[in-house]
Amino acid sequence: MASSQLLRCNVTSDLLTLREKGLLFTLLEPQCKLIKTTVAQILVAEDTQGRSPGWSCLGCGAVCLIEDKSIHTHFLRLYCVKRAKLLWEQELYIPFKYTATRTFFHTFPADSQQVGLNFAEETEAKEFHLAVEAVQRNQEMMITMRGITNSENENKSTSDPPDSG
User: Fold this and answer.
1) Which of 24, 65, 107, 149 has minimal CB crowding within 10 Å?
2) What does pTM read for this prediction?
3) Pair 65, 131: CB distance under 8 Å
4) What is the mean pLDDT of residues 83-94?
5) CA 18 to chain centre
């Protein structure tokens, strides 16, 4: 991707270098679209068994909100730009409960435990939250539209055929 396109793109983090931004685009599969990127730590809630709850760091790097058009779903992914490697991913299932518990810390239930995003920059955290909410609204709207289409199709198939006279 040309550097001029990267600079015009409002989806990448200002905390990443131009080289790191370009690397992220090369790590994406062709059917994936990058919606938003930020720099953050991924934390997972520890099973404390009676002790006060805590978090352990799963990794740190570029956290990306991605649309995979081939399977019509969205993911949060953590990439290490130094090693050019995908470290972690979580599908935004429906309903996905994403919460901004602090301006710099967001949480959500993942497949096996509670996950937290500890953002490097609060403005990017807010923008990332807005991007996730927009994806969720679009997902809900698509489900509603599918429901309306399905009910219309059911009504057409169950209605009486027209009289032929």
Assistant:
1) 149
2) 0.80
3) yes
4) 94
5) 22
In the chain, the percentage of residues whose pLDDT exceeds 70 is 84
Question: Mean pLDDT throughout 92-120?
Answer: 93
> Are the C-beta atoms of 1 and 12 separated by less than 8 Å?
no
CA 60 from chain centre, in angstroms, equals 16
If we measure between CA atoms, which residue out of 126, 153, 6, 136 comes closest to residue 73? Answer: 136
Tell which residue, 129, 109, 111, 110, has the closest CA to residue 119.
Answer: 129
For residues 155-162, average pLDDT: 61
Degrees to nearest 5, angle at CA 135 with 131 and 138: 140
Residue in 26, 35, 131, 120 with CA at minimum distance from that of residue 81: 26
